[in-house]
Amino acid sequence: MRNIECIARAVVEEDGKFLLCRGKGLANWFFPGGHIEEGESAPEALVREIAEELGEESEVMRFLGASENKFHTKNGEVHEINLVFKVVLLSDGGRVSQEDHLEFAWLTRDELRDAVVFPTSLRDAVLAMSTKESPIWASEGF
């Protein structure tokens, strides 16, 4: 059975660095965010996820684009649709993970380029963003 997941992702950039997270002890990074729950919008999901995971208030500024990713897990194939937004953090709670299984880091553009980030196509699209407001479309695994 195929599993399709809809996830809201945040691109948070401060002082030329991007906020990423990963599971503790794991090599791969990802843009913060999480699954959109029934009854909530994608921006609401991001505000909730950032509050839960980072203990920070945030504001969704604008929709950047979408990314789809297909990959395999021990439970089978996953088709992931990521809705990607520019987000700013409104509070400064120390930028420390509120969840024991996650860690956050600020990566420069060069560090982001060299990091193991999933989906890779989303990382590459974010790095390619210019000052233009053209939308992101990234696809991987198809």
UniProtKB/TrEMBL annotation:
InterPro entries: Nudix_hydrolase (IPR020476), NUDIX_hydrolase-like_dom_sf (IPR015797), NUDIX_hydrolase_CS (IPR020084), NUDIX_hydrolase_dom (IPR000086). SUPFAM superfamilies: Nudix. Its cofactor is Mg(2+). Residues 1-130 form the Nudix hydrolase domain. The keyword Transmembrane does not apply. Keywords: Hydrolase. GO terms for molecular function: hydrolase activity. Transmembrane segments: none annotated. The keyword Hydrolase applies. Pfam families: NUDIX. Belongs to the Nudix hydrolase family. This is Nudix hydrolase domain-containing protein.
